[in-house]
């Protein structure tokens, strides 16, 4: 009986290999051959799923959300009856490079960002990701405002943008050690304290 191959699982395994290579050595370390070796598959197997390196990289970039969401759900499951502030903080701390996985994801994201200049498909994929994250942040604050959890804020959309881009601005400095993880979390907590009752 022929072996059943889970093609999506294979593609995810290849994406994980891309993440490991970028996380360890940057975007320059990513070639189809190196990814095949890292994933423990043949070069032909990688080319079966991805015609070009760009196709493989775009898939890996899009895979970020799929990779992060189960960790967010797990973090939320550990909170008994979480408030909007606790849910927001859980999501934010997953974006910051505070542990091995989030550090790898931050490194990968910055590598893609730097590599996006001149690559409209990568820029579009990054914009799509940022829009989705920002919209989730905005909706979270709107829900908190409607339920009376926020302090008096005139413009919730502006507050959501400030919070979202504050967090984005903390990622790089924390990643390279210009700011400690503890300092980054303190900045986030101070901002949340200013927003929430």
What can you see in these coordinates?
This protein is mainly alpha-helical and 197 residues long. It has one domain (7-195): Tetracycline Repressor, domain 2, CATH 1.10.357. Helices cover 76% and strands 0% of the residues. It is built from 9 helices and no strands. α1 (7-25) crosses α6 (100-115) and α5 (84-95) runs antiparallel to α7. The longest helix has 27 residues, at 120-146. The model has no long low-confidence stretch (mean pLDDT 91).
Quick structural gist:
With 197 residues, this protein is mainly alpha-helical. It is built from nine helices and no strands.
**What is the CA–CA distance across the termini?**
62 Å
Beta-strand percentage range:
under 5%
Radius of gyration over C-alpha positions, nearest whole angstrom: 19 Å
Instruction: Give helix and strand order, one letter per element, not per position.
Output: HHHHHHHHH
Q: Structural class given helices, strands, pairing? A: mainly alpha
| Average pLDDT | 91
- What low-confidence regions span 5 or more consecutive residues with pLDDT below 50? none
CATH superfamily: Tetracycline Repressor, domain 2
What would CATH call the class? Mainly Alpha
Q: Using the coordinates shown, work out and report the CATH topology.
A: Tetracycline Repressor, domain 2
Shape: elongated
Number of helices: 9
SSE order and pairing:
Layout: H1 7-25, H2 32-39, H3 43-49, H4 53-77, H5 84-95, H6 100-115, H7 120-146, H8 156-175, H9 181-195
Helix pairs in contact: 1-2, 1-4, 1-6, 2-3, 4-5, 4-7, 5-7, 5-9, 7-8, 8-9
What labels describe this entry?
Tetracycline Repressor, domain 2, 76% helix, mainly alpha, 197 residues
């Amino acid at each position: 009986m022929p072996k059943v191959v889970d093609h999506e699982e294979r593609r995810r395994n290849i994406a994980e290999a891309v993440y490991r290579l970028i996380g360890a050595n940057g975007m320059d370390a990513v070639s189809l051959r190196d990814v095949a070796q890292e994933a423990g598959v043949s070069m032909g197997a990688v080319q079966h799923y991805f015609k070009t390196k760009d196709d493989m990289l775009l898939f890996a970039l899009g895979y970020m959300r799929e990779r992060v969401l189960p960790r967010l759900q797990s973090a939320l499951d550990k909170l008994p009856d979480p408030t909007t502030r606790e849910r927001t903080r859980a999501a934010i701390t997953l974006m910051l490079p505070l542990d091995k996985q989030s550090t790898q994801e931050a490194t990968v994201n910055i590598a893609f960002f730097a590599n996006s200049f001149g690559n409209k498909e990568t820029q579009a994929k990054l914009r799509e990701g940022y829009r989705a994250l920002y919209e989730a942040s905005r909706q979270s604050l709107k829900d908190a405002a409607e339920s009376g959890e926020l302090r008096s804020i005139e413009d919730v959309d502006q507050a959501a943008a400030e919070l979202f881009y504050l967090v984005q601005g903390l990622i790089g400095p924390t990643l390279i050690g210009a700011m400690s993880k503890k300092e980054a979390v303190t900045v986030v907590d101070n901002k949340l304290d200013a927003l929430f009752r």
